[in-house]
Amino acid sequence: MPLLKGTLNPLVLKALCLGPMHAFEIASWLADRSGGEFMIEEPALLQALHRLEERRLIVAEWGVTANNRRARYYRATAAGRAHLRAETESLKGSVAALTAVLESRTA
Amino acid sequence: MTAHRVRAGVARLFQLALRRPDRAATEADAELDAVLDAKAEYLIARGMSPEAARAEATRALGIPLDAARALVHRSARHREQRLRTRERLGEAVATCRYALRTLRRSPAFAVATIATLALAIGATTAIYTAVNAVILRPLPYTQPDRLVTIGEDNADFNWRLGDAAPANFLDWQDRVSAFRGVAAFSPFSENVTLTGFGNPRVLKATETSGNLFTVLGVRAAIGRTFEDAETWQHSGRPVALVSDRVWREVLGGKPVVGQTIRLDGRAVDVVGVLPGSFSIPGLEADIWHPFAWDPADRPRTWFRRAHFVRVVARLAPGVTSVGADAALQVVVRALQAEYPATNTRMGASLAPLHDYLIGSAERPLSVAFAAAAALLLIACSNVGNLLLVRAVARSREAALRRALGAGRSRLVVQALTESLMLALFGGVGGIVLGWWGTAALAALMPHTMLPVNDLTVDWSVLGFVGAVTLVCGIGFGIGPALWMARGRAADALKDEARGSSRSARSRRWGDALLVSQVALALALTLGAGLLVKSYDLLRRVKPGFDPNGVLAVKVDVTGPQFDSTAATSRFYDDLLSRARGLPGVESVGLVSTLPLTGPPWSSEFAVAGRPPFPRGGDVVHREVSPDYQRVMRVPLIHGRLFTDADRPGAPSVVLINETLAKAYFGGEDPIGLRVAFDRIPDSTSHWRTIVGVVGDERQTSMNEAPRSEFLAPAAQAGDDGLTLLLRTTGDPLALVGGVKRIVRAIDPDLAISSVKTMGDVRAAALARDRFLTGLFLLFATVGVVLGVVGIYGVVAQLARRRMRELGIRVALGARRWQVQWLVVRRGLALSAIGIAIGVGGAIAVIGVMRSLLYGVAPVDPLTFATVPALVLVTAALASWVPALRASRSDAAEVLRAE
Question: For position B897, what pLDDT does the model report?
Answer without folding.
Answer: 60
